[in-house]
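This is your field. Have a critical look at both lines of this record:
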Amino acid sequence: MRIIDRYICLEILSAAFLGLVICTFIFFVPQLVQMMDLLVRHSGAPWEIALLFVSAFPAVLSFSLPISVLVGVLIGLGRMSADSELIAMNALGMPSRRLLVPIGIFAITAFGLTLAMTLWLGPASVRTMRNLEDRMRTSQVSSEVQPRVFDERFPTLVLYVQDVSAAATRWRGIFLAEFGAEGVSRLTLADEAIVNADQGQGKLELHLSNGSVHEYSPGDPNHYGLSGFAQRDLSVELGGAENRNSLEPTNAERSLHDLLRERGPNEREARVEFNRRLAFPAACLAFAFVALPVGSRPRRGGRSSGMLTAVAIVCGYYFIFTVGAGLARGGSVPVWAGIWAANLAMGLTGLLLLPKIEQMYEEGRLSQSFAKLSDFSHWSVFRRTLVARTRAEENAETSPVSAELRVGNGATGTAVAAGFPRGRRKGGGFPQFLDFYLLRNFLFYFALLLVAFILLFEVFTFFDLLNDIARHRTGMVEVVNYFRYLCCYLFYQLAPLACLVAILVTLGVMTKNNELVAFKAAGVSLYRIALPLVAIGIVFATGLVLLDDTYLPYANQRQNELRNIIRGRPAQTYFRPGRQWIFGDSAGTNAKIYEYQLFDPDRQLFGDLNVFELDPQTFTLRRRVYAARAHWEPQQNAWVLESGWVRDFDRGEVTHYTPFPVYELAELDEPPSYFRREVRQAFQMNWWTLRKYIGTLQQAGFDVAGLSVQLQKKLSFPLIAPIIIMLAIPFSILVGTRGALGGVVVGVGLGVVYWAVAALFEAMGAVGQLPALIAAWSPDAIFFFLGLYFFLKMPT
């Protein structure tokens, strides 16, 4: 390989690494959050944890590698074109078509890596990840059992535990209901239990003490079995793992040979998967082919222009791919035509544009418009106005200072610091032209990066949902509205990351151009430079809090409803408990547990109602009530039970049995509104609504640990914006020599670290290992002290 070819490959490689980092982060973060939750809830050996993380990357890299090729060629050639290096190469007799050699080598290398991901590593990693998740889920189920929560993860039974020891090996107050074909058939209560998880057999071994067993057949209400025990051993099947392991592997796990041999109803899906595994690697060649003529054209705007162009091409490619895949699955077009349509479109576009790379056209209107956006010359009128106002306010000795210093090996650093007198005043008021100069650069990069992040997330989401859109024939209006509301959620989630990267890029470019050196030479401290950036971070944090308290909950509700429509799920009802077990009002001498098959809030009606009244001190059953039907009488302010019976218990014996056609019990005084509980996610409520919601669920016996963490995160997450800006400022000094590219890479790296730490603490809080306050605010505290340390150590 010639020197010029190596030079071009290295230029493309550095930009491609930027695209690879960003895309991998975008596709990996959702899986990272899930894996952190899995690791907290299910411990595993160090090699299992490492293998779990490694197994997540092949599937992600099969998406991000082709995109990185596109980003690398566009940004690499764009930089060379902007610096007139391509023109110099032509002047030396090297035709532009010669670029096909190094770019082709780079694209073929990426094609081979992606092909290895889709053909071998990808299916193997999916199988490995599924087996590891199953093994870890069954390893420590006992540690997941939360006190005072109805646990329905076990097959054919519901478990309630009054108290759990710190080691999760000893329970107190056990309520275990087993189901038959007609309802609750056996009820086991115990004062205490010693727990041992048998991972090999997939069971929980319970050693119960001081309890009783109630056996009942709903078809024969006159017969009721009751027996007490001092000691008893009971095995509880964990369920799920055995059934899951017995399932046939999905198409994503199967080999190419198995996909080709598939016959029957799954044949078309197998053909789609087969062609997809070949089309994604070929996208590396298609992207390189179309990026060569686009990236080599003269334009201004630098890397930001290339990044936006890459996002637009990626959106177009995946739109064509997903539409074609949907048509192929529906049988409207041959499978190969639907899957390969996007590659053919990109290849044809590149073929049409390729002859024009020999012609050095001037910038088009689009490039000129973007160059005006990235060039800040259109701020000159505003700058002149601000300087004139400053001059009028300052005394005669005060004048704008413009410092152009020769620094290092001839580089020029330029700083405009209006309002700073020569050699006398070092600080000045706030705001000054310096602050507006920093903020306009920061806001430009912030908007650019935020738009790019949101578009990439939405493209990936659209790709994920397109099969459901085609299968359920969702209207275009619903799809557009879904992504419109999703934008609001993505803005809230990605704004802190965009702040972080924008700070690193802004100050990194200024450091590379020696502007910060010029500012310091003019007597401006880096602390003073950081002031407007931290201030804008506080403004963003306040805005995110207000957004989450006003419009965002509504937008999240709407996008969740529309996503259910796209997925073909029934519309969510917000007035039905997700579980059919609920604790009664805590007032009174008895603790009541309601179990029912149906609750109609409109007609205020229960179906197949069981009520268990427990002694809260000894956790023994005092009374059990069954009614085939129960309706609310507002005049009597009580429930009227129909076709049922009442049994009273004392010292392990049935002391009273009363069958009835119609009956009324005064102690069942919970009104219908008590059971009409909204079932919404934390992101669908503002802070005040979520706080009230947690209180009602906690009283009813629901697990609120996760919701409590989310309540605290509604304040802690927005506050990360100024904290992470403070951390980014000293890091931008370190990566300044690499400019925007180094800033984006370091910013995304810090973002991954923050999301991993936040997901870890959130998962620990959701399972009760940490208080909600500590789980939600610990990431902010960690990054605040790190940022403060590096901020104070910064050479000002």
